From TrEMBL:
<comment type="similarity">
    <text>Belongs to the 'GDXG' lipolytic enzyme family.</text>
</comment>
<protein>
    <submittedName>
        <fullName>Probable carboxylesterase 2</fullName>
    </submittedName>
</protein>
<dbReference type="Pfam" id="PF07859">
    <property type="entry name" value="Abhydrolase_3"/>
</dbReference>
<dbReference type="GO" id="GO:0016787">
    <property type="term" value="F:hydrolase activity"/>
</dbReference>
<dbReference type="InterPro" id="IPR029058">
    <property type="entry name" value="AB_hydrolase_fold"/>
</dbReference>
<dbReference type="InterPro" id="IPR013094">
    <property type="entry name" value="AB_hydrolase_3"/>
</dbReference>
<feature type="domain" description="Alpha/beta hydrolase fold-3">
    <location>
        <begin position="76"/>
        <end position="298"/>
    </location>
</feature>
<dbReference type="InterPro" id="IPR050466">
    <property type="entry name" value="Carboxylest/Gibb_receptor"/>
</dbReference>
Length: 326
């Protein structure tokens, strides 16, 4: 093939995604698919469902080993990471992580597969995730289409959780849930934000000293996934921006923010924790920092002690126990 006939590259995030002028998108990571199963290590069962056929919003459901046929469990609606443009609940990484988390926490989990940018730019990920949450909540009277949720989900204990972009989604859905105009039929108990993908136009904390290449990548993500409003101070990306909705309206009563010492977005997670604490919001917010680790470290090494500590802290949160230190 001569060079003139090669497709023209218009956008690239090295090692993550390439977009060509003809519209072709090449995802370079996390494209694998693991079928649902009963995990031999944990005994957690999983199955895939389509929630909203019109938009092809789907999910993987996870059910831990039950001690009784009518056991009711906390319900976790989970959103994966991947900068809003890569990955899914069906990759080996997220499937293994949810098996481990569901087994440790003894929760039923719905891992949502929202549509990805750039084919489906923001706000699609939020709209899909909100629609998925509403679909889940439609089971609160035990008359929804999914038996696992009807039989085993405790709608008095509903949590949102996610990593990175998924943590961003969990925050934004909790803001919507707190608005009486859009609210849900159930009260969210809490949200757990692991390495939340928040950013902003102006550097804070250690960001001014960040490697310029790394900072450039972070600066470019939001304009890439949200061309309709490419401002890094978009309130969905920067929840403490001047025109962001007040955190006092966050629609849950408990929040856990988890950050990692070497993570480029660590200070954004810390700032969110501090801003929520002084906003007048009436809930309880706690923070956990993992020393010596980077963004999403636990997903690639579930057997490490620090990954196990993080999963134990999340399990305690989903079961109503918020230790002041771990």
């Amino acid at each position: 093939m001569d060079s003139s006939s090669k497709p023209e590259l218009v956008t690239e995030f090295p090692g993550i995604i390439r977009v060509y002028k003809d519209g072709h998108v090449e995802r370079l990571i996390e494209t694998g698919f693991v079928p649902p199963s009963t995990d031999p290590q944990t005994g957690v069962s999983s199955k895939d469902i389509t929630m909203i056929p019109e938009s092809n919003v789907s999910a993987r459901l996870f059910l831990p080993k039950l001690t009784s046929p009518h056991q009711k469990l906390p319900l976790l609606v989970y959103f994966h990471g991947g900068a809003f443009c890569v990955s899914s609940p069906f990759t080996p990484k997220y499937n293994s992580y949810l098996n481990a988390l569901v087994a440790e926490a003894n929760v039923i989990a719905v891992s949502v597969n929202y549509r990805k940018a750039p084919e489906h730019p923001i706000p699609t990920a939020y709209e899909d995730s909100w629609a998925a949450l509403q679909w889940v909540v439609s089971h609160c009277n035990s008359k929804g289409p999914e038996a696992w949720l009807n039989d085993h989900a405790d709608f008095q204990r509903v949590f949102l959780g996610g990593e990175s972009a998924g943590a961003n989604i969990a925050h934004n859905l909790a803001i919507i849930a707190g608005n009486p105009e859009f609210g849900l039929n159930v009260q969210l108990r809490g949200i757990a934000l692991v390495h939340p993908f928040f950013w902003g136009s102006d550097p804070i904390g250690s960001e001014a000293l960040m490697d310029p290449g790394k900072k450039s990548v972070l600066d470019r993500v939001w304009p890439f996934i949200c061309p309709s409003n490419p401002d890094n101070n978009d309130p969905r990306f920067n929840p403490v921006a001047m025109d962001a909705p007040s955190l006092v309206g966050l629609g849950c009563t408990r929040v856990l923010v988890c950050v990692a010492e070497k993570d480029g977005v660590r200070d954004r997670g810390r700032l969110y924790f501090e801003a929520l604490g002084r906003s007048g919001w009436m809930g309880v917010v706690e923070i956990m920092e993992t020393e010596g680790e980077d963004h999403g470290f636990h997903l690639s090494d579930l057997e490490s002690e620090k990954a196990k500590d993080l999963i134990k802290r999340l399990a305690a949160f989903y079961n109503g126990d918020m230790p002041s230190s771990l």
